[in-house]
TrEMBL record:
UniProt-recorded name of the protein: Taurine ABC transporter substrate-binding protein
Cell compartments where the protein resides: Cell inner membrane; Periplasm
Pfam family of the protein (one): NMT1_2
InterPro entries: NrtA/CpmA_ABC-bd_dom (IPR044527)
KW Cytoplasm (keyword) present: no
Organism the protein comes from: Prochlorothrix hollandica PCC 9006 = CALU 1027
Keyword Lyase: no
GO cellular component, one term: plasma membrane
Keywords: Cell inner membrane, Cell membrane, Ion transport, Membrane, Signal, Transport
């Protein structure tokens, strides 16, 4: 340590060679607050009972002029502003500040390296430093009883809400319309929403304009097209659905948009050749059996439950239509976020951490047991476990093993928002031209970036040890085409030209 170079750039190089510093640690060092990382907790995390490691951390702190100086420089929530203030106050030189930031980043990396391999994902309910400044701790979070809501639901029984200082209760809602109406009425603090809903609500599509932010994605994939048993052997592709009555959970849903996308590839006009109607997911199997609908594109566990009951068979999982597509999301209103900024940040962080836990296949049997309870999904454990593990019967005599049948990647890609907007334009669900008025070729990015909180989700994911992407847009590869988020209008026109709708 006595030979530690004083030049910050040389220090970074040395620390890199020692394996104590990674470039990503700068981001963490810039985002963690001193309140969340107090000296005792940090030493405990970094040392893990190893006296040599603890001495190394202490020596690093000495090089920075003490833990307070290192934390102030490295972990300030706005380090750029801190540096400017420091220069004016003549407390630090620029070189000293950069040195401390480099040391702080090394300390963050050291703490992360201290985790054992099986500790990369936090243990449910594991305590953290007290969360300070929460405007509200008693929370009610609305959810629909489907596996898409897994991170929101499991955070209650597995202790993720408690870990961040909340006494939070999840509230079972009967339909997406009820979720929307309760959100507008202010009856809930936050909600489980379909990914298109925050866009639609903010733009005033299907309801009065009401500002909602999509904070993080709850699940990717995880849906399926299920067909009534009476049609077995008759359906081979989208063209065979002509004349069907089809259920989706809500007009402004990925289910509706994906179903329309799929049907159009078979030459069907979703507004003329079939009937698509909203069906609350809990009612879907009963309507399938009664003959009110012929098939549905629904979230699980209702596809797997239809197989379990002998009511229907799985025709296609949505992963085969768009691998990695978004489905549901965690959301809150603009007004509530403005009134409770610290609470919102901590709550979103808890759910992002829960999503990371759910993404690990090893944790899914435990999660299935926790969320199958009557208070949550009220489903047989074996049905929920079949969905979460991807080991399932499809009702056609096949036993499948598809581990990514459902996933829990919380990162809200802006390209998701642009695809959703493109399909709202394509199908004009209100049939009055309003969609084209509020989403134009020049406003695709603006709409998405105003609603999807991608940067915040990345920041919080890094804080809980995840590795989200740097990019916010990507080319989305669907089964029948590729979506370039830089040119949604051309994409929509190409779809219309190819399929006629």
């Amino acid at each position: 340590m006595q030979t530690m170079p004083q030049d910050p750039l040389d220090m970074v190089n040395d620390l890199s060679k020692m394996g104590l510093f990674k470039a990503d640690a700068f981001k963490v060092a810039d985002s963690i607050t001193g309140q969340e990382l107090r000296q005792a907790l940090f030493l405990k995390m970094a040392a893990k009972g190893d006296p040599k490691r603890e001495r190394l951390v202490v020596e690093l702190a000495k090089q920075a002029g003490g833990l307070d100086n290192a934390f102030a420089a490295a972990f300030g929530p706005q380090s750029g502003q801190f540096f400017a203030d420091s220069i004016r106050a003549s407390q630090f030189t620029r070189r000293e500040f950069l040195r401390n930031l480099a040391i702080g980043a090394a300390m963050v990396t050291l703490a992360n390296c201290a985790k054992a391999p099986d500790e990369s994902t936090p243990t449910p309910g594991e305590s953290v430093a007290p969360v300070e400044g929460l405007e509200k701790t008693d929370l009610q979070i609305g959810f629909i009883p489907i596996t898409c809501a897994t991170p929101i639901i499991m955070s209650e029984p597995l202790g993720f809400y408690k870990k961040y200082g909340f006494n939070a209760k999840v509230v079972k809602m009967p339909s997406w319309g009820a979720v929307r109406d309760s959100a507008i009425a202010g009856e809930l603090d936050a909600y489980h929403m379909l990914a298109p809903m925050p866009i639609a609500m903010t733009l005033g599509l299907g309801s009065g304009a009401f500002g909602v932010k999509l904070a993080s994605i709850e699940n990717i994939n995880g849906q399926a097209i299920t067909i009534a048993e009476r049609h077995k052997g008759k359906i081979n592709g989208p063209a065979d659905f002509k004349g069907f009555v089809l259920g989706v959970p809500f007009p402004y849903s990925m289910h509706n948009l994906l179903l329309r996308y799929y049907l159009a590839t078979g030459g069907l006009d979703p507004d003329k050749d079939v009937q698509i109607r909203p069906v609350p997911p809990p009612d879907s199997i009963a309507q399938l059996v009664a003959g009110d609908i012929d098939a549905y594109l629904m979230p699980d566990p209702f596809n797997q439950r239809a197989v379990y009951e002998g009511a229907g068979f799985i025709h296609k999982i949505t992963k085969d239509i768009w691998p990695g597509h978004p489905c549901c999301a965690f959301a809150a209103s603009d007004a509530w976020i403005g009134e409770n900024p610290n609470t919102f940040r901590a709550l979103n962080k808890a759910i992002i951490e829960a999503a990371g836990y759910a993404q690990d296949p090893a944790n899914r049997p435990e999660i299935a047991k926790a969320i199958s309870d009557r208070a949550f999904l009220n489903q047989p454990v074996e049905v929920v476990e079949a969905v979460l593990t991807g080991k399932f019967d499809d009702g056609n005599g096949n036993t499948l093993d598809i581990p990514d049948r459902i996933g829990f990647d919380p990162y809200p890609w802006q390209s998701f928002a642009n695809w959703i907007s493109s399909q709202l334009i394509r199908w004009d669900l209100q049939d009055d031209g309003k969609v084209a008025e509020v989403i134009t070729p020049d406003t695709y990015n603006t709409v998405g970036e105003n609603v999807f909180l991608t940067d915040l989700a990345r920041e919080l994911a890094i804080e809980v040890g995840q590795t989200p992407p740097e990019e916010i847009y990507r080319i989305e590869k669907l089964a029948y085409d590729e979506f370039d988020p830089a040119d949604p209008s051309t994409y929509v026109q190409a779809q219309i030209d190819k399929y006629g709708v």
